[in-house]
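Example protein was shown:

_____
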Amino acid sequence: MHNHMKQFFIFISIIGAMSAYAQVGGRPLAQRVIVKTNLLSLAAHRPTVAIEKVFKHNLSAEISFVQGEFNNVLLTDHYDYSGYLVRVKKHFGNLELGNATLYGSIYGGTLKRTIQTKAGFLYPSRDFLANSVRGGYSFGFSYFSKSKINIDGMTGLGYGKYTKVYRSNSNQRAGGYLDMQVWLSVGYCL
């Protein structure tokens, strides 16, 4: 955990240093790439990294590497995940520096999940490892400061389907799952 926190603070320091030297004006967002991380990944002990490209004035696409780990949460001893996510956003306003806009999006991606639990009084033990594909819809807001800092908040809901199950308890079905997302990302427009 300590190593991930150190990496996160180095990332935030670099963004802060870059914004200190940022010039107002210059190229429009459509000629830039946004690099960002989900601050809520701090709770999952691993960084999430995303790269977003703006097309035209109200359309953008983002690719993300997501990963995380939780221990002793909600009747689960160990839960970790990693995967990729592609999101296409339709903004309800023009994307410009100094502007905030709401957006709707669709997403799709992959996710590898490990869930482990020792049996308790009210629940059975689990030892589950599988790959999945997932997709859904999300809604959010995006703010671009004049100094090229991006703040992006989003919530999403979708469905995931297991494609390859490596380990599963015989009493559990590995069909699919509800895919829920909450992001609060901070980034910089390069």
Observations:
- The chain has a mean pLDDT of 85.
- The CA atoms of residues 142 and 152 lie 4 Å apart.
- Helices lie at 2-20.
- The first helix runs from residue 2 to 20.
